[in-house]
Amino acid sequence: MTIASTGLITLIETDTLVVGAGPIGLFQVFQLGLQGLHAHVIDALAVPGGQCIELYPDKPIYDIPGLPVCTGRELTDRLLAQVKPFKPTFHFQQLVESVSRHSDGRWLVATATGPQFLTRTLFIAAGVGAFVPKELKVDGLAAFSGQQLFYRHAPAAACADKHVVVVGGEDEAVANAIALTQGEHRAQSVTLLYRRDFLQASDAQLALFESLKRQGAVRFLAGQVTAIDAREGTLTSLTVCTPEDDVVSLLTDTVLVCQGVSPKLGPISQWGLAMARKQLVVDSGTFATNESGIFAVGDVVTYPGKKKLIVCGFHEVTLAAFAANALIHPDASNVLHYTTSSALLQQRLGIHQP
Q: How far apart are CA 91 and CA 48, in angstroms?
């Protein structure tokens, strides 16, 4: 692996790059590790887990081999423990913008705000797409993104001793509103704004929020943002329309939007890969796409007999890892090794035999 910086752009050279840190992407890392290949992993979310973490972290899953029942969070934790010996490098909150063939045959992968990657093999484990925050669409508001407008997380400097409006009414929004009333970086004022007049969060969170509201530490307002006011390039207030059709002006230094996330296939459809019904077409023997060096696994692919199940994705990444290793090391032995008996695989796993 080589890392070089040119100006403000960091270029990372690697043999394998995995797009997606959900269960399928994580098991792809494991299978690549067994092949002796270190992986870099990109995900649009701030944490690993993909759909399991975003959609059903605490709901039971019953069809994982060897695990009669586990939650999405437990499955993610187990997969992270499994890949730990291979020390993958994660790049979170990064969305791949473009993929292009480099002059030497490798793939140049560029992210929206992070590094670029020059990789020999690329594995797309994007599931139903990258989970991106649901935007607050108000004329002129997007101009303040990254300065006064943030999604899901905001830097301490943007909130400390500031008038903060948190938009959203579920667990994440309530948790952020509570957090902003506490600690050395607490906001000067916190208003939680939601389109309905009731919140949807855990009982413990709601009880704490109500206590803070009674103390005057936080305010709740039902309504929707309809306009903004800005002066000399600085956002100063939000105009809110309430369910009673009243118009309220909220003094604002920082807007933190927590309206959840939605999957978007995004720029994958623009990478020149063969697709059918918005899914990538692959060879079911290798899970290679129509472009040499690019593989795709999980819910993002289609082939005859495809089933959108986690267990099927585990099979797919195994074959993809073998195919990628053959591409990177064409002269390597085709002998199949087993983790129960192979000293080489056990060495890679960090298992010390007596």
A: 10
d(C-alpha 240, C-alpha 250), whole Å: 7
CATH code: domain of residue 212:
3.50.50.60
Domain boundary, last residue among 259, 280, 300: 259
Residues 106 and 156 in one domain: no
In a domain, 23, yes or no: yes
Helix axis angle for 310-328 and 23-34, nearest 10°, is: 40
* Cα radius of gyration (the chain): 23
Residues 208-225 as b or e (16 or more Cβ within 10 Å = b) = bbeebbeeebbebebbbb
The stretch 177-196 carries a mean pLDDT of 93
CA atoms within 13 Å, Cβ hemisphere of 199: 27
Structurally, the chain folds into a number of domains equal to 2
By CB atoms closer than 10 A (0-12, 13-18, 19+), residue 277 is exposed
By three-state DSSP, how is residue 338 classified? coil
What's the whole-number mean pLDDT along residues 195-207?
A: 90
Average pLDDT over residues 251-268: 82
Residue 73 CA to residue 276 CA, distance in Å, equals 31
Boundary (domain end) residue, out of 235, 259, 283: 259
Q: Which residue blocks in the chain are alpha helix, DSSP H?
A: 23-34, 51-54, 72-83, 156-159, 171-179, 203-215, 310-328, 343-348
Residue 261 has pLDDT above 80, yes or no: no
Q: In which domain, by residue range, is 252 found?
A: 135-259
267 lies in the same domain as 252: no
If asked whether residues 154 and 97 sit together in one domain, one would say no
Does one domain contain both 72 and 146?
A: no
Note whether residue 353 is domain-resident: no
Q: Are 63 and 43 in contact (CB under 8 A)?
A: no
The predicted structure's pLDDT at residue 266: 65
Does position 140 have pLDDT exceeding 70, yes or no?
A: yes
Signed CA dihedral, 49, 54, 57, 61: sign only: negative
